[in-house]
Amino acid sequence: MNPTTTTDATNPTAESVSRVAIVTGASGGIGRAVAERLASDGIAVVVHYGRDRARAEEVVAAVESAGGVATAIGGDVADEEAMAALFATAEQLYGGVDVVVNTAGIMLLSPIAELDLADFDRMHRTNVRGTFVVSRLAARTLRAGGALINFSTSVTRLQQPTYGAYAATKGAVEAMTLILARELTGRDVTVNAVAPGPTATPLFLDGKPQEVIDAIASRTPLDRLGSPADIAEAVAFLAGPGRWINGQVLYANGGLA
């Protein structure tokens, strides 16, 4: 299964790009913020999307209008052939890959006793298998000095009701991330996970009354929800200067406890 690729003939070639990032789920929310933030550091960004090509192209346009370099490539993160093709396309366009950020994920909430197993399987396929497929490719292809950044959630330690199945998928992500960091000993590649707290994205806000949102925001010492830009800053740190942070879960949640 080949990915869908959107490129611009004016995009710089491999000779003029120093670092390259693949950001999965980059067509909106945190993924878009991450793509734009990395591009602001001069990194060429592969804007991955699952279904919404138009939104991914908007991200590419935003990056390019700010003077950056980006290409949109679609594909199912859980499909190993599609993701292998995505990585191959990134290497063909830019000569290699230095940063991989796995923001792609879905969240379906329900008490465990009432959860439809089909919903659990959907989350597992995207959040666990998808992260595993992309992480495996990253482990094989990232250049020296590179970084793999997976996404967990602060819910893994907050134990909030209705988040059980979702937190279970992210617990699996944390386990594979921390083990992979040790498996890449000697490669000069860091492997970490970012665990956001409540962040003002459609994924979090949809279906919640304002009073519920306000109550959640008030639980942080900073008295607000996180923003996608807050999370993107954590990713940019791990992708750039944070070379001595490896095999860790970074909780980006404003002090939520």
Q: Could you characterize what this model shows?
A:
Helices cover about 45% and strands about 15% of the residues. The chain has about 260 residues and is an alpha/beta fold. The protein has a single domain, classed as NAD(P)-binding Rossmann-like Domain (Rossmann fold, 3-Layer(aba) Sandwich), CATH 3.40.50. An 8-stranded mixed sheet has the order 1-4-3-2-5-6-7-8, with helices on both faces. α4 links the parallel β5 (about 100) and β6. α3 runs parallel beside α4 (about 115-140).
Brief summary:
With 257 residues, the chain is α/β, with parallel strands linked by helices. It contains nine helices and eight strands. α1 links the parallel β2 and β3.
Tally of separate helices = 9
Number of strands: 8
CATH architecture: 3-Layer(aba) Sandwich
Characterize the overall form.
Answer: globular
According to CATH, the fold-level topology is: Rossmann fold
**Number of structurally distinct domains:** 1
Strand coverage percent: 5-15%
Q: What is the H/E string? A: EEHEHEHEHEHHEHHHE
Which bin fits the share of residues in helices? Answer: 40-55%
Q: How far is it from the N-terminal to the C-terminal residue, by CA?
A: 43 Å
Uncertain residue ranges: 6-10
The CATH superfamily is identified as: NAD(P)-binding Rossmann-like Domain
Mean pLDDT: 92
The main pleated sheet reads as: 8 strands, mixed
The CATH class: Alpha Beta
- What gyration radius follows from the Cα positions, in whole Å? 17 Å
Quickly give the structural class: alpha/beta
Lateral arrangement of strands in the main beta sheet: 1-4-3-2-5-6-7-8
